[in-house]
Amino acid sequence: MASQSQGVQQLLAAEKKAAERVAEARKRKARRLKQAKDEAQAEIEKFRQERDRQFKEYETKHLGSQDDIALKIKKDTVEKITAMNKQVAANKDKVIVRIMQLVKEIKPELHINAKKEM
């Protein structure tokens, strides 16, 4: 009976040791996954920064700086406003005359839905 008890003790000890090894292996795997994830994230960030730098170089080379774009937009806006003001000044009198004609010349008519009473 003692040898049987000793065998059970050995089995329990072996099972405990195996469980510890499995737990340690899981911890190592989790550490490796976390490390791989961190490395991948760092690589992604490095790639993103490189692409941003390339884009800014391209933008500066082909489109000009942001200040140049802002100045161009401002210049175009001033030109359009000036053109609109000229158009208003040229047509202002004609529009006023036409509005006055429409106000003065009233032609009373029955609406088509109104019934004529006899």
How would you describe this protein?
The protein is mainly α and 118 residues long. It contains 2 helices and no strands. The longest helix is centred in the first third of the chain and has 61 residues. The N and C termini lie far apart (129 Å). The mean pLDDT is 89. It holds the Pfam family V-ATPase_G. One of its GO terms (biological process) is synaptic vesicle lumen acidification. One of its GO terms (cellular component) is presynapse.
Number of helices: 2
- Share of helix, binned: over 70%
**What Rg is obtained from the alpha carbons, in whole angstroms?**
43 Å
The fraction of residues in strands falls at under 5%
